[in-house]
Amino acid sequence: MMRSRAGTPVTSSWQTVPTCWSSLRPRPTFSAKLAHGLADDALSALALACQAPVLVAPAMNGKMWQHPATVANVRTLRERGVDFIGPEEGLLACGYEGLGRLWPVAGIVERIREHLSRRPRP
Prior knowledge:
Blueprint: E1 2-3, E2 9-10, H1 28-36, H2 42-49, E3 55-56, H3 62-65, H4 68-79, E4 83-84, E5 88-91, E6 97-101, H5 105-117
Parallel strand pairs: 3-4
Antiparallel strand pairs: 1-2, 5-6
Helix pairs in contact: 1-4
């Protein structure tokens, strides 16, 4: 089991790393919830309660990523200091090709490490 620097357990999967330092969820719903202050699940509640930097790795159909509502939510979150990694172009889960693909997991993990290394030491 992974542990944080404080020694507390960190739950992780390819979809989410629910620590105060990083939150990854490849769906547009998470960005919308975070932008509008909705906390109806554990990850959204954690992200809203957390005072640490947040990293979001979105993945969705390109039309969803380019929709004005998504664009506005991402703009709002960036203005609040949320960092985004991706999406990239490629074959999408829906069968289309284009913008919206989740970044490679190795790249996401590297960005998480970068975020953690910038964390002020107690």
